[in-house]
Amino acid sequence: MYDCNILVIDDDNIILELVQIILEEVTSGEIYVFSDSKQALDYVQSDSMDNISLVMCDWLMPDVSGLDILAALRKCKPHCPFLMLTANATKELVVDAMRLGVNDFVVKPFHTNDLITKVERLIRDAN
């Protein structure tokens, strides 16, 4: 188990609850969740990000996209791992997102073990 804080952003409350339950197996730190992408963007642009070790974010959300969140994150915390959650992972979109700084993807619907493996790897690699 890791002692790190994780930020999760998704407009689907069921996904947020599920991810939070899964992440409680991975970290003893705090898990911050946002279903409102505008509020999430404000959080990412705040000093509160200093204690975040990993960001997990949905790609397609109303108002602010996951790529907008990523761009804001890269300005304030360029080396923070970013795990994109998406139901639409075409090869072209994945390649474009990786060029913009996405560290890895989880395709919805996902298996718990796949999510845990990717989160653990990203946290380990960041330390």
Which features would summarize this protein structure in a list?
Bact_response_regulator; Sig_transdc_resp-reg_receiver; 127 residues; 20% strand; 5-stranded parallel sheet; globular
Structure description:
It is a single chain. The protein is of the alpha/beta class and 127 residues long. It has one domain (5-126): Response regulator (Rossmann fold, 3-Layer(aba) Sandwich), CATH 3.40.50. The chain is 43% helix and 20% strand. It contains five helices and five strands, in the order βαβαβαβαβα. The protein has helices at 13-23, 37-44, 66-76, 91-100, 112-126; strands at 5-9, 31-34, 52-58, 82-86, 104-107. Strands 2-1-3-4-5 form a five-stranded parallel sheet, sandwiched between helices. β1 (5-9), α1 and β2 form a beta-alpha-beta unit. The longest helix has 15 residues, at 112-126.
